[in-house]
Description:
alpha+beta; four-stranded antiparallel β-sheet
Amino acid sequence: MTKKIENNKISVKTLSVIPLGIAYLISIPIQAYVLKFIGFNNQYLIIVGFHLICSFILFLIFTGTLIIEIKKEKKLIKVEWDKKPLLTKTENQVISISEIENWKLQTGRGTDKLKIFLKNNKVLKIDFNNMSDFGQNSKKKDLLTSYLTSEKINSI
C-alpha cells in the first residue's frame, strides 16, 4: 500500500562513496607520516584512535543533506542542498516530470543509488546514505520512486 503523495519535502542523507574511498586510501599513508613525525611509533591505541578520528572526519566531509520537494500539482521535483558534501556533481535544480525519461535504482549495503535520466541526456544521481540513518532513507527513497511510478515514468 503506497502513501498518497501531495506536496512533500523529503530530507535525504547522501554519501559520496567514490570520493570518500579515494580520500580514505590517500589518508592512510598521510596519517602514518604524521604519527611518525610526532613520535607515536609503537603506541597502538593512540594510532588506532587517531585513525578512527580521521575516518570519522572524512565521513562527515563526504556526507550531505539533500532536500527533495515533490510538487504534485505543478508536476515538479525540486532538488536543493541543505548541506552539500565535498566533490559531488549534483547541483540545485528544478525538474519537470515531462523532462524525465526513465529512472534506475541500484541497491547496496552502504548506499542505494537512484539515477534519474532526463530527456536532455543529463543524469541526476542521488546516493542514499544507509549507514547513518538506520533505515529512514529507505522509506524516503520508496516515497520518491513510488511518485515516479505513479507519474507513469518507467524504471530500467
